[in-house]
Amino acid sequence: MIDLLQDVRYAFRSARKTPGHTAAFVAVLGLGIGCATAMFTVVNGVLLHPLPFPQADRLVQVGAFEPPDGDYIRTWSRNHSLEGLALFQPGGVNLGSSGRVERVYAAVVTAGFFPLLSVQAAIGRAFTKEEEQAAAPHVAVLSHHLWTSRFEGDLGILGRDIDLNGVPHQVIGVMPRGFEFPEHTGVWVAGGARGRLDLGSDRPADLPASLRYTVMIGRLRDGVSLEQANQDHKALFEQLRREGQRTGSTQRVFSLQDRLVGNVRTPLLILFAAVLFVLLIGCTNAANLLLARAAGRRREIAIRACMGAGSGRILRQLLTETLFLTLAGGLAGVMLAVICLRAIRAVAPANIPRLAAAEIDGRVLAFTLLVSLIAGILAGLAPALQLFAPDLGRALKDQQGGITASRMGRRMRGLLVAGEIALALVLVEGASLAIQSLWRLSEVRTGLDPRNVLTAELGVPRAKYRTALELADFDRRLLEEAAHIPGVVAAGAVSTLPFGGKGGGYLFVKGLPGTQRVLVIAGDYFRAMGIPLLAGRAFTAADHHGSQPVILINQELARQLWSGENPIGRQMQVMGGSEAGPREVVGVVGNVRSQRLQSDGPVDPPEPEFYIPELQPWRQAPEQMTMVLRTAADPGAAVPALRRVVASLDRELPLFLVRTMTEVMSESIAPPRFRAALLGAFAFLAFALAVLGVYGVVTYATACRTQEIGLRMSLGARPWDVVRLVMGQGLRMALAGAGAGVAIALWLTHLMSSLLYGVSAADPLTYVAAAVVLIGAVVAASVVPAVRASRIDPVSALKYE
Description:
Layout: H1 2-17, H2 19-48, E1 59-62, H3 72-76, E2 82-97, E3 100-109, H4 113-116, E4 123-124, E5 139-142, H5 144-150, E6 161-164, E7 167-174, E8 187-190, E9 215-220, H6 226-242, E10 253-255, H7 256-295, H8 298-306, H9 311-347, H10 362-387, H11 392-397, H12 407-442, E11 453-458, H13 468-482, E12 488-494, E13 505-509, E14 515-523, H14 525-529, E15 533-536, E16 550-554, H15 555-561, E17 571-575, E18 581-589, E19 609-613, E20 626-631, H16 639-649, E21 655-660, H17 661-668, H18 670-704, H19 706-714, H20 719-748, H21 764-790, H22 794-798
Parallel strand pairs: 3-8, 5-7, 14-19, 16-18
Antiparallel strand pairs: 1-9, 1-10, 2-3, 2-6, 2-9, 4-7, 5-8, 6-7, 11-20, 11-21, 12-14, 12-20, 13-14, 13-17, 15-18, 16-19, 17-18
Helix pairs in contact: 1-9, 2-7, 2-9, 2-10, 7-10, 7-12, 7-18, 9-10, 12-18, 12-20, 12-21, 13-16, 18-20, 18-21, 20-21
């Protein structure tokens, strides 16, 4: 312990005597540790941190089908591996209280939902089994956040009624602070499998697709594994099929946490691996700094050895000095991680669940400490191996303060630089692929014109607009008023906004396999969205409920049904829905890529679609429509007037998700943009650190060869020969690193193949371009020390040291 304290004091004095070296070491290592800590904070909060429920690892999502009697719980309780089954269905509702209406996220749940999650109401109570029945009174439970923000934490809220989609619900409880499952839920309503509350299709963007509809969750019984539950579940499926019941295709039981984070797991792990490469490059540069310092301490270490210090004692002292500097770098890294974490949250897409709750906690600090220690050992091992067993005779002949370089040190520095060039090349190639993929994705022809288009959702309650025709009449009046807003060129509405993330409706079309996408539209939708009319006509006010049923189809559907023929005037048989039947094709419009562009892998080609006028609905229930306004100038200027128009027709309808179409499309490619941004940032850091590392090593190596260069010039070497000699050293390291980097990249970047669009993970042009750019930068970094060496005075050089 005394020796350790002595080593720590000596390390502190050494760091204080060489402030430049200390600052450079802490900065280089702190940068790598800071980025790694920030990214681990995200991985820890999103992937590793368990759900905030007791025994959360036992919670599962059950893949099921709808039983004929609608009793999910009774049917799936026959899987004896599970206990405490419950259902929930998320969506949006209009919350009305004290004359104010706003849109909030809600969930219809069965009575077993809260007991399954082992969560009790903080105030009041949760639901009973009787309250989920259709004839029971309507009751609701509030989240703590909604209770405090909307009702100011009023304890008198218990027993009071609030309007949810125009239906009074009695508040019976408030949940504990922080409980908002599913994500961002503000109110829970008791209901069965189909629910007793009409939920809108708007859901939190960070809620995975697997949890966006009616979901069954359960808890594994004690001693039962997930594999056993899956076997029992599959056996129950087969038994139900033999009984003649309709079954779905999903025969699995999933970990609930995996379903929450499954879509973001691979991208986050790839980004975490990329930031570890940055950390390794930082360690490499730190090791080179220590090697450079070690060359000047060979005489000091030799004197210590002559005075009786053993190799182990010397090695311990050197590692203590390195760990002292490394811990300082770790502390700087934690401070940098706070800034990096804020930046990551600012650019992160909305589909990353639990990101807002990710914070630097004890596990993150333990990770930082561990990484700092490992980084210190890695950075200090090479110089320690060079110093702790020195050549005493040669080392004692070195003059104090001289700069010398052993052959072992030169080889170590060369290998380290080649290694960091290889790692940097892997990151540059990965970032290049991600950026190319994003660019190609943004260049996809969507079939519409998003410029100067405003979109807005309307929360229309079925309790007030009970039929599709009632809502259609309201929408007609609303669009007529909206079309007269100053600056509005065209006004329309659609049931599923392109790139909006909703699934939309599907119907069977005679003559085509499978189901085809159907969209309900109103007003001048095609003009508002900039979708071209290729043949025939658009819908008019004459296409109402009592007229001839008509339909518009897209170019792809026309090609599949009547390739090379004119489809106008033909009859198309639609099967399914309350208003299904033959419809006359009156027009053909251009193809629109309606699905979000964020999906990993190739973007699907335009799918067959057809359009039905809202005044001729395909089902009795009203559609939740999205308004679309095309304006002559800034779309945002029309928002206040649009709100006034909606309020003049129905004050109880909130306008929400008000966005431009450009913003909607930008959000659809937010995940690949996030990956490209972070990979690009990490690649830039790696590139800069690698180039700085080469510059430092070549500069130091040139200084060590000052006498040799002077001798060469005295014997007739020209300045160009010296430049070629110095730059050749940098070029050899660059070529060795580039070769290793290409090999590693070919091995690793195939992991990104599922995240790329329009570019191969083994694209040769990308590899060649990245290697050429990096080699060129490395060679350029060697120019300055090479030119400086060519200007050395031979007489002064021969007197060097």
